Amino acid sequence: MPNSILIVEDDKLVRESIFEVLSLEGYHVQMAGDAKESFAKLSERDFDLALVDMRLPDSSGVEILKTSKERFPGLEVIMMTGYGTTETAVEAMKMGARDYLTKPINDDEIKILIKQIFDTRKLQEENQSLKQMLSQKLSRFHNMIGEDSKMQKIYSLIQAISDTDTTVLLQGESGTGKGMIAQAIHYSDPTRKDGPYIEVSCGAIPRELLESELFGHVKGAFTSAIRDRIGRFELADGGTIILDEIDALPPYLQVKLLRVLQQKVFERVGDTKTIRVNVRIIAATNRNLQEAITRGNFREDLYYRLNVITIHVPPLRERKEDIPTLIQYFLKMFSERMRRNVTGISKQAMKALMDYDWPGNIRELENFLERAVVLSQSDILDLNVFPENFAKSTENMNIPSSNEGALKEILKDPEKKIIVRALEQASWNRKKAAAVLKINRTTLYNKMKQFHLL
Questions:
Q1: CA dist., res. 374 & res. 366, Å (int)
Q2: Fold (topology level) of 4-119
Q3: CB neighbourhood size of 285 (10 A)
């Protein structure tokens, strides 16, 4: 459902111009020419955001802002002004306005500002949903997610650091659950659990955008910087930030991160003002950082700053006793989500899942079981919904001479392992992995879908 916006502006030309711009962006937009009409519309339906002129025929924008915050607390308000000074608009922001725009309104500026507001709101809603979900999980975190002794040690460590600001380094293969452990650290911290939890995948963001993404920028810092932008570190103030694929951080940003770790301060791109944040930093990687130091790709001083508390997350093949518990958890989750009634698993199916090494770890198991639940016609999961030849080694496979597709089936398992190995070597960067495998990215993407690696 599109976000809804109310434009409160007495100038018909300005009002209709903004209406056209925002409607073309896909928003549900309504207009009001004065305060009385605006309150009538706000009472009729819920709006996500209001654009309010500072001066109206029957009231001031500030009065509308005051009343709106009292009667419609979920409404975001942007003030528009062609009069007075910037200080007037800033004063309105202190009273609860989200931001302000000066006339004449720039189309790109208003589109970017509104998108940023709705993106932030979506992130907050997702965080709230995540908190509710994890509050249910964490009460049974030890039993539900891992009974293995290695995982029990991790849970004990999480409890030990829960009331500290200690930096944490998570090391482990892709798909082992590093993100879940980072969330557990955040939500077990009594001073941060109600604050923001911000995830950044350093390897997924283009290098030229990464500094701005992490630290923000000011208007004019570079060609496309048409207004100020808050970075992920500022968004995480009072909470936790997890920097996944920390090994992908370029050297010049490693220096900047080192300063944040040491002093909790930084500057936005293009600005001289120093910003201080109160944030716990969690770094995660599936690479050996000491090898990266030896090759000159990672700063040794940054490694020691990150390596205060290191948690090694074991691969699923090293804690197979957790597989039955994980299977039951995923079966329940996907049965509810897909409106299926899968309540258990046959002995033969369980044995097949236990015998498999799961190179993609928990992520692969999760994707595998999602597919199985979707295809299951019974309340008991059985081998008939598993891919043909699943979990069989090439050594004990019989090749039917009359079956034209047998060779392709036999090669699936080793092919999958080769792809997973290449992805791990490339830190799950598809472009690099495709280059290693000497195939194009589209082929790799299709193979990853085929093997449930996405």
A1: 12
A2: Rossmann fold (3.40.50)
A3: 24
Q: List the domain boundaries for the chain.
A: 4-119, 151-314, 317-386, 399-454
Task: Give the SS3 label for residue 272.
Answer: coil
pLDDT of residue 40: 93
Say how far apart CA 387 and CA 407 lie, in whole Å.
Answer: 15
The CB-based long-range contact list for 259-264 (8 Å cut-off, 24+ gap) reads 260/233, 261/167, 261/302, 261/305, 261/306, 262/305
Q: Evaluate whether the domain defined by 317-386 bears CATH number 3.40.50.2300.
A: no
- Which run of H or E residues covers position 6? strand 4-8
pTM for this entry = 0.59
**Under 8 Å between Cβ of 376 and 335:** no
402 pLDDT band, cuts 50/70/90, is very low
Write out the DSSP string of 23-83.
HHTT-EEEEESSHHHHHHHHHHS--SEEEEESB-SSSBHHHHHHHHHHH-TT-EEEEEESS
Shortest CA distance to 187 belongs to which of 214, 166, 158, 160?
Answer: 158
Amino acid in position 314: P
**Look-up of token digits 């930084």:** 266
Class of domain 399-454: mainly alpha
Alpha carbon of residue 332 to chain centroid: 24
- The tokens describing 186, both together, are 């955040």
The domains spanning 4-119 and 399-454 adopt the same CATH topology: no
Q: Which CATH class is domain 151-314?
A: alpha beta
State the burial class of residue 212 (Cβ atoms within 10 Å of its Cβ: 0-12, 13-18, 19+). Answer: buried
Q: What is the mean pLDDT of residues 21-38?
A: 94
Range with the poorest average pLDDT among 73-77, 249-253, 441-445? 441-445
Whole-number Å distance between alpha carbons of 251 and 269: 16
Phi and psi dihedrals of 45, rounded to 5?
-150, 165
Backbone φ and ψ of 280, nearest 5°: -90, 135
CB contact at 8 A, 176 and 313: yes
Which residues in 168-200 are b (16+ Cβ under 10 Å) and which e? bbbbbbbbbbbbbbbbbbbbbbeebbebbbbbb
